[in-house]
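Help wanted!
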Amino acid sequence: MIARSIVAVLLSIPASMILISLFLAATPPITALRAPSMLLVFPLWVVIATASFLVPTARFSALMLSAISLVGYGLIQLLDAVGVGGA
Amino acid sequence: MNTATIRTFTAVHTWTGLASGLALFIAFYAGSLTVFFHELREWDDLHPVHISHQADDQAQQLLDQVFAVHATHPPRFDLNLADGAYHGHRLYWSERQDDGSSVARRYELTNTGQAVDVSGNTGPLAGFIYQLHYNAGLPNSWGLYALGIVCLIYGLALLTGLLIFIPNFMKDLFVIRSRKNLKRFWLDTHNVVGVISLPWHIMFAWSSVLLAIGIFLVAPFQALVFKDNLMEIAADDFGLVQPQRPADEVGAILPVKELTAIAKAQVPEFSISRLRYRHAGDVNGIVEVSGTLNERTTLVSRAVVTLSAVDGNVLAVSDPRLASAGSTMYFGLYELHFASFGGYVTRWAYFFLGLAGAYLFYSGNLLWIESRRKRRQSEQRSDARFLAKLNSGVCMGCMAGVSAAFLVSRLTAGLSARGDFVEAAYYAVFFAGIAWAFLRSVAHGARDLLYICAILTAAIPIVDAMVIDMPLWRSAANQRWELLMVNAVAILGAAMFFAMGSGVSRRARRGEANSVWAEPVRPSSPPTTGLGTQK
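Answered by r_m:
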């Protein structure tokens, strides 16, 4: 439980930030969306951290959360490179 | 949801509750009192003369008289105008000392129109309790951030608590079963309080995280998506103005009347309550004129007009009716957190919800202890005894410490080190409470501490009657409602502490013997087995 909890609490932070960043990068730059999206980091973190406990092992949970962060970050960079959307 | 999942979430709810419960108890207990911040400050300041309502024109008198004595303007100062809560205008600023500490300066206008320095009479109590609310008594330099992290964990505890309650939602909702099974009783009351106040707790967890560590959660977006222009975006969305550096060139400040007239022209329907000056006296000086809308059509009612202090040029207008979605969401959470709406009804609701929240964290720890009770032997697990002592020591030590802070603040009124005495009283009683809880058995420690809470709290109206000659009836006759309210709540609180102390004492003598809450078994007593009660 300790390992799963550490993974859930820590790795959910970058994952939730990346998901919101990806949303902001992929959608047209609507100013009304910017600040509310950033303010949603906390509830999204709670949901992702809680959901990560449904994954049976700490290792698999860490892999999934890291994958979300890395793939999300890659997609943000890709969107930036091709000039699609962007905040 | 299958059993294994519920078991996992129960384990998560347990550790998150244990990790955050004690700090949140202090934050909620202090927070429920902080709802009445203005009343506490009035109680603590104790003006010997009741200040009559002052006209807006008199604010300029206060400024002129104070700055005729002080050669230079402080870098930042606030002029609070008379309103429903405070009848007089007040001028505040904070001065940084060579040793890094700061000293508050406060000036008021008497009924005869004389500006007086009331810095020495400024009560430290309300500020100290507010500080306890946001740092739980931890050092100021990092206490706020620590409590922000605690609030993150609190969010996790809320969601997992809800998830483990959902399968029995309809069956267990608002059900409190027999007091014979104490674990069931604590669980039922924990669930009822938790479910009733869940939306409020969600708001509190969210807004607290934003207020305490929001900058750390938002800053990464600069690197991820906003490409170094996050501050500009935030300024646009939240109607903020970054003050310019002083030009070191003298610029006369416009009169208060002119500044408020310009602000009123921008937002005609608002009542101005504060003018915040930055770099006043410099050509780059600005004034934030803020107040609340007269007709409340939005949750956020605070409007701010930022002006140049020298020529009255309008730099920014933040009107909640025209605000961006982000601003509405952020300041909406802020208003919900600070109960800045709905008047006294909302504030009393927050007061009771705050106490209910404190109970939630206390009862959560009790549940953990009850779950680990060894029903067939008097010797209980050492971890259960440890948590029971820690829970009693911290929670009751905090409540006793707050009551001691009230007493010391009143008894040291007029002393320059009043604030230090108030803090010392709180921490002395708080740590003594923890030490006492660990020195005594669980039952005796909790009982003693609750009785100490009752005595210290009951002493508040007695000290008011003796030191300032304001017994309850005289406060009512003189319409000193803040004195009446604090003292009436203190009497009620003392009665409740006494009743709880009696309950703990009764349980120790007559309750189940095999529990941390039972009277400790003396060496000469025959060993107890089974579930029988002691006679």
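OP: Thanks! One thing I noticed: Chain B touches chain A at residues 5, 8-9, 11-12, 15, 152-153, 155-156, 158-160, 163, 205-206, 209-210, 217-218, 220-221, 224-226, 233-234, 236-238, 324-327, 329-330, 333 (CB under 8 Å).
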